Amino acid sequence: AQTTKDREMKSIYATSALAVLMVTFAVTSTHAQGRMKGDMDRDGERLERMFWRLDLSDEQKSKVNILKEEVKKETGVLRKEVKALRDQMKPLWKAQDLDENQIISLHKKIRKIKGEMAQLRIEFRIDVHKLLTPEQKEEFATCMDQRSERRNKHHGKRGKGKFGKRGQRYNPYR
After folding, report:
1. pTM greater than 0.70
2. Who has greater pLDDT, 109 or 164?
3. By C-alpha distance, which of 120, 132, 126 is closest to 51?
């Protein structure tokens, strides 16, 4: 038979666990929103640093900004599509009986759209490269090498994650 003290302790543990979950959810949500906004801010900062390092003319800056806005518009539409597909997928993961075909179908659509976004980024870099002088192209290559080195140095510190990808965990609700 449970005593009153045992029931009170269970109640305290349950309340504590719920509080921890709520705080974790709030912190995670806030971090994700900040990260998305931060990514957008960093993109603008990176572009400004590139303008400075490559010593772009005003005409080149203007053309790069036009290209950037076009890509931003296109990727914005694609991002919304990905978000809508993820929103469709969330309840499927929560269902008692998973609809594997539907989940896989939505996942394939998301991967396809993300591939389109990657293609747009590559095309943007190619278009920017076409605007550069030979000297600027050399400096651009140096910047890309340095960026790659920084990325490798950062990622090299992380180990294998739970599901085999470096630094990543599987999250079906993303």
Report:
1. no
2. 109
3. 132
Would you say how long the chain is, in residues? Answer: 174
148, 140, 156: which is closest to 54 by C-alpha? 140
| Neighbour count for residue 72 (Cβ, 10 Å) | 13
The two counts, helices (H) then strands (E), for the chain are 4, 0
Per DSSP, 162 falls in state T
| 161 phi, psi to nearest 5 deg | -80, 180
Give the residue among 93, 99, 100, 77 at the shortest CA–CA distance from 170: 93
The answer to whether 65 touches 50, Cβ cutoff 8 Å, is: no
Measured CA to CA, the distance from residue 70 to residue 65 in angstroms comes to 9
Residues 50/129, Cβ–Cβ less than 8 Å: no
Q: If pLDDT is split at 50, 70 and 90, which confidence band does 85 have?
A: very high
String of DSSP letters for 50-73: HHHHHT--HHHHHHHHHHHHHHHH
- What radius of gyration, in Å, describes the C-alpha atoms of the chain? 23
Instruction: Quote the tokens at residue 6.
Output: 């045992």
Backbone φ, ψ for residue 160 (5° rounding): -70, 135
Task: Look at residue 6 in the predicted model and tell me its pLDDT.
Answer: 74
